[in-house]
């Protein structure tokens, strides 16, 4: 998808008179450990960032190339986090919404509309519209997906220093074979999501 096509959703909304549009996406809903991250990004209209697309389609190297460009070029951006403890207390969907709200609250410019990746929404404090596969269809959401992913990966690299036995620097907390083996050997850490491990430990 070309850069121009990535602006189709925003352009149609701009044409309807919506002035400030923000993209919102999360990273880390699925892992067994660590927080869930979200980012909210307002880009200047028609900004061209070559290679901008869904963070999952990009290499780590490419995401890290785009990360500072997005931060420098954005009108505003915010990054929000919900901890593994919050995930266990309120469930991953509600924790994801909480991280998204926190990201939106950090914006220095209030958006007229937030484009939310996915098909679930809540009261975000601003008007919102969900976009299924939005990280592949919207420049704003794609930018948010990259900021959220790189920010979370960096944090998991920090956790790898504190908990080297789990290999967080390699799998970022996802349920790989090596990660499950480490859980068998060492048990869970303080940063594991115990609600995600109920069935695993129930089998033992």
Give me a quick take on this structure:
With 204 residues, the chain is an alpha/beta fold.
Describe this structure in words.
The chain is α/β, with parallel strands linked by helices and 204 residues long. The chain contains nine helices and five strands; from the N terminus they run H-E-E-H-E-H-H-E-E-H-H-H-H-H. The protein has helices at residues 8-15, 60-73, 84-90, 92-105, 134-137, 139-162, 168-171, 177-186, 198-202, and strands spanning 21-27, 36-42, 76-82, 113-117, 128-131. The chain has a five-stranded mixed β-sheet with strand order 3-2-1-4-5. The longest helix is centred in the last third of the chain and has 24 residues, at 139-162. The protein is elongated.
Note the topology.
Layout: H1 8-15, E1 21-27, E2 36-42, H2 60-73, E3 76-82, H3 84-90, H4 92-105, E4 113-117, E5 128-131, H5 134-137, H6 139-162, H7 168-171, H8 177-186, H9 198-202
Parallel strand pairs: 1-4, 4-5
Antiparallel strand pairs: 1-2, 2-3
Helix pairs in contact: 2-6, 3-4
């Amino acid at each position: 998808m070309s850069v121009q096509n990535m602006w189709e959703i925003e352009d149609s909304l701009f044409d309807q008179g919506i002035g400030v549009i923000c993209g919102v996406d999360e990273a880390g809903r699925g892992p067994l450990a660590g927080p869930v991250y979200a980012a909210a990004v307002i880009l200047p209209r028609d900004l061209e960032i070559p290679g901008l697309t869904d963070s999952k389609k990009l290499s780590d190297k490419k995401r890290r190339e785009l990360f500072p460009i997005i931060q420098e070029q954005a009108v505003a951006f915010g990054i929000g986090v919900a901890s593994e403890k919050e995930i266990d207390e309120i469930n991953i969907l509600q924790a994801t919404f909480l991280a998204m709200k926190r990201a939106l609250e950090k914006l220095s410019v209030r958006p007229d509309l937030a484009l939310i990746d996915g098909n679930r929404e809540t009261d975000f404090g601003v008007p919102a519209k969900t976009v299924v596969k939005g990280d592949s269809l919207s420049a704003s959401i794609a930018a948010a997906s990259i900021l959220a992913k790189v920010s979370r990966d960096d944090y998991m690299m920090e956790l790898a220093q504190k908990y080297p036995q789990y290999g967080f620097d390699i799998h970022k907390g996802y349920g790989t074979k090596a990660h499950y083996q480490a859980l068998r050997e060492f048990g869970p850490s303080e940063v594991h999501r115990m609600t995600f491990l109920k069935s695993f430990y129930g089998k033992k």
